[in-house]
Amino acid sequence: MAGVPPGKTYTPGLDFSGVTYTCPAKKAQSEADRAHEIIKEKLPLLHQINALLAVTFGDRPTFFVDGRGDEAKILESCDDEPDCRLNIKPEYIIQFYENKLEPRYGLFKDAFFNEASMPAGKIPVAINAFSRLPEPTEDVEQVKRDIEEFGYGLAKNVLSPEQVAIMRKAVVEQAAGERKAGIAQVDGGPDGPNQRLWTLINKGDDFLDLLNHPIIDEFIPWALGEHAIITTYTANIARPGNVPMQLHTDQVAVQPPIRDIAFGMNILFYLEDVTEKNGATRVYPGSHLGQVAPEDIFTVEGSAPAEAPAGTALIVDSRIWHATGPNREEAGERPLILLFFMRSFIRQQENNFLSLRRSDVWPKLSDRHKRMLGFYTTGALGGVDGEVREGLFVEWKDGVGRCGRRMTGVRGEGASVG
Ligand SMILES: [Fe+2]
């Protein structure tokens, strides 16, 4: 694995520590050279930016791409103040060029961990132009049409007011408990006003029961096929004063980018009337199809708030650009539950195989839960010790994993084959 040195060698004769192939310094130089060549090749187009860019490849000297005139030029030095400064790995330029990396993602990829990688300066914002946007509706076929056209839809009254109250209480109490225990996971700025609850499958019977909701059966197989599994099951509470989240798509892990199909679908259960002011999820309508994308992923300018009353489910295609919005209220909070499915061959973000070893939760899981969580073989995936026949549950027995029962019906209990 790249960048991870080998550990101790156990077998005499199998020590590979003296073997090297590519010299890192040589590789870095060759990538920088290649990235320069690519920029040079693209100069006839780069006047379109109508701006002066300062570009730095890691610790190499900064150079300038001057696209202010009719013909763009590369300059080794320039006394003018650049419109934008980019500090980027040359390998990303190569990957953009070879269509192996989503450009917008790559531009900001390292900024999370390395402040110096944050593009700085004036970056224009994309403009959306639609004559209408999805409205909350109980007509699921309309919601599907909205998802196809806009990348998201709003299914109204998925939860009754009583059910909203139950789930809201579950989220709020769990959040308070995690805060009290000093294990709250917060984000949304330096003071961390937003709180996120992870692995809800472990956090109460209410969350197990929500997985029986038929809205899942209505939308997930329609979008992702029969074997989609839960990649994350979380709650997010946006509180006043938060900083809007970085815009992203939920399939950024799919690199090289494959945007022709959705790999995931997220169902967001609204547990509060969600408004632009209290932190509605911000979306770029139509961006799932690729023609619309934010210029700057650190601002929600140009995005639309997905407003809807409590009890609505916002259902989103994983290709759409979106983010938690800013909560500009004086008080209160905006809790919601995010149930995110991905196709069965995508690695899950939450490692349920480890987190579900809790002895009090595992016995409560139905076949439906286990299937949704990935404890089930599909295709040639998910087996134990070579067993990959389609349709087997995997389980723990005497402290080890094994393949066990076979599914006998869509929702029925399995019959033992083990
Ligand atoms: Fe997201």
UniProtKB/TrEMBL annotation:
Cited Gene3D superfamilies: q2cbj1_9rhob like domain
InterPro entries registered for this protein in UniProt: Fungal_Metabolite_Diox, Phytyl_CoA_dOase-like
Organism: Apiospora hydei
SUPFAM superfamilies to which the protein is assigned, alphabetical: Clavaminate synthase-like
Superkingdom of source: Eukaryota
Designated name of the protein: Dioxygenase
